[in-house]
Amino acid sequence: MRAFLAIIVIALGLAAIGIYTSAFIVHQNEQALVLRFGEHKRVVNQPGLNWKLPLIDTVEVFDKRILDLDSQPQEVTASDQKRLVVDSFARYRIVDPLKFYQTLRYQEAVRSRLGPIVESALRRVLGGATFQDVVRDKREELMKRIAQQVNKEGADFGLEVVDVRIKRADLPKQNSNSVFDRMRAERQREAAEFRAQGTAEANRIRATADREATVIRAEASRKGEEIRGAGDAERNQIYAEAYSKDQEFFEFYRSMQAYEQGLKSSDTRLLISPDSEFFKYFADPHGKKPTAGAQ
Questions:
Q1: Which of 47, 128, 130, 64 is nearest to 100 (CA)?
Q2: Residue 195 and residue 32: Cα distance in Å, rounded?
Q3: What is the rounded distance in angstroms from the CA atom of residue 123 to the CA atom of residue 118?
Q4: Which three-class secondary structure state does DSSP give residue 134?
């Protein structure tokens, strides 16, 4: 009885081991390749529980998701002879597990086989484009062309290249310095040109203002002379009217003004004869010259 129970236990254990080694699970993001003595038997793309022959069949599991492949920055010469340092990456997925197993076998090998293909396509496509096309005008179109070329060669490894993108496209350091120096010189030239234009405009405005000031002063001087002339004319007219009304008073008034101007308190010296016409009001209040023999 005990021997029978032992046989049952052993049989159940062997059955459990057989079931365990015969079953395998494929997850949602995986695909499996079933091999029998190293030869392809089938590909499992659907997730779930699957079976294989224990100790005879082996299962290779591959990722079904889109994977990234980073490339090393490389220097590319554009068609206009301008050099660029391009940092790119590719996105791919395994679409043929058997071909992938036969050519690469492991995902770690993708970098060594697909990486040079991506770099070669980059140099080939970007080398036929101009610097402006790469950095601005036709970047999207160039990326599609690179992805198409890489995808053709990647099909030999059971891969589908979904996209190739440029993360950064910069000028080499020495070129960047020369471009910076050229940009700085250009900005300095523009600044000097703006300053020259400003100086010319300031001189023009200053000259216009000086000319207008000269015109204004000349016009003011002219009007002043006109007003002064009108005043002198009016004064002379008043004098003439006063002279015509009372000649003796006018002569007396004019003589008093002459005395005031000529006989100032400062050192006044006159070399004039005492009986001169100038002193006629000193000898006679009426301004009459004394007759000969008069006392």
A1: 64
A2: 74
A3: 9
A4: helix
Q: Are 131 and 93 in contact (CB under 8 A)?
A: no
DSSP H helical ranges for 127-272:
131-132, 139-154, 173-245, 247-262
**Residue 67 buriedness (CB in 10 A; 0-12 / 13-18 / 19+):** middle
Backbone angles phi, psi at 120, to 5 degrees: -65, -45
43, 97 contact by CB (below 8 A): yes
Which helix or strand (DSSP H or E) is residue 282 part of?
helix 280-283
**pLDDT band at 175, cuts 50/70/90?**
low
Q: Which two tokens stand for residue 270?
A: 């006159």
pLDDT at 280: 65
DSSP 191-216: HHHHHHHHHHHHHHHHHHHHHHHHHH
pLDDT at 213 over 60: yes
Q: How far apart are CA 44 and CA 258, in angstroms?
A: 138
The DSSP call for residue 289 is P
* Residues near 138 by beta carbon (within 8 Å), at least 6 away in sequence: 129
Alpha-carbon torsion, ordered 39, 42, 46, 47, to 10 deg? -40
109 in Cβ contact with 41 (< 8 Å): no
Identify the CA nearest to 123 among candidates 176, 67, 164: 164
The stretches of 59-172 forming alpha helices (DSSP H) are 97-103, 109-126, 131-132, 139-154
Query: Mean pLDDT in the chain?
Result: 80
Q: What is the pLDDT of residues 222-247, one digit of tens each?
A: 899 889 888 888 877 887 777 677 66
- Is the distance from CB of 34 to CB of 54 less than 8 angstroms? no
With 0-12 / 13-18 / 19 or more C-beta atoms within 10 angstroms meaning exposed / middle / buried, residue 139 is middle
Phi-psi region of 213 (alpha: psi -120 to 50; beta: other; left: phi over 0): alpha
